Amino acid sequence: MHRCRPQSSEGTPGQERLHRSRRPGEANRRDQAGGEAASAWTEAEFTLHADCRNFLCARRIFLQDGEMTSAGRSLAHVSSSDGDASSRVRAILAAVRPLAAEYYALTGKPLGVTGEIAEFAAAECLGLELTVARTAGYDAVRQSASGPVRIQIKGRALTDGASRSQRIGRIKLDSACDTVLLVLLDAATLEPKEMWEAPFSSVTTRLAEPGSRARNERGALSVSDFKCLRGASRVWPPTSGHQ
Q1: Which of 223, 96, 88 has the alpha carbon at shortest distance from 155?
Q2: Is the dihedral of CA 189, 190, 192, 194 positive or negative?
């Protein structure tokens, strides 16, 4: 399997192309015009390029490993009982988390791994069995005395003092699932903070209520709205009565 080797901030492909593209004397003219400020900016540019490349490499490994598990499953299907694969996933997430969190802090935009991190955190913390990739309608299963419970998982990264009206991603209304699990992550670290679960029937009822385009057209609830749904409860960290 091809591995993508992270690049250091020195000698990146972008830096090599920049040096090759300069005509004779161009570097001297630029240094004279920009002085130390130009040199500092260029160094920062190369560092950012390397950090972004490292993140993309880690994410590519994350996806590649998902398609090459011994049972032919995707990474999303690795459960916490699969020792070697689970350890590998934890190592990959440990590399991805700080880069994704730093990018979010700098830009206010996610790097596209919040969903994967939320799903794996839910599997580890709650003992869920994650489904194969692209399973229609739900992301995980919980085995119960009355049979399997199908769960749709939504992840949201929150900053300290974040607005209570922050919205979670689109909830699929045509899903064959039983509950929706909201995984709240610390935006500074992308570690789990809380997990809330609500019956799917309560979610669909709330989304159908008039008065909000976000709810009615985009299938999106705010974090505070989700917590107030009928039957919603915090499932992690466990309360004293559910340990």
Answers
A1: 223
A2: positive
β-bridge partners, 199 = 179
pLDDT digits (tens, 9 = 90+) for 72-106: 334 444 444 566 787 888 889 889 999 999 998 89
CB 174 within 8 A of CB 137: yes
Distance CA 119, CA 181 (A): 10
Sheet with 129-130, strands from edge to edge, namely: 129-130, 140-144, 147-158, 179-186, 192-199, 233-236
> Of residues 171 and 76, which shows the higher confidence score?
171
Taking alpha carbons only, the member of 19, 115, 49 closest to residue 76 is: 115
Are the CB atoms for 185 and 114 separated by under 8 Å? yes
| Domains, in order of start, for the chain | 114-242 (3.40.210.10)
pLDDT of residue 134: 82
Q: What is the pTM of this model?
A: 0.67
Burial status of residue 56 (CB atoms within 10 A of its CB: 0-12, 13-18, 19 or more): middle
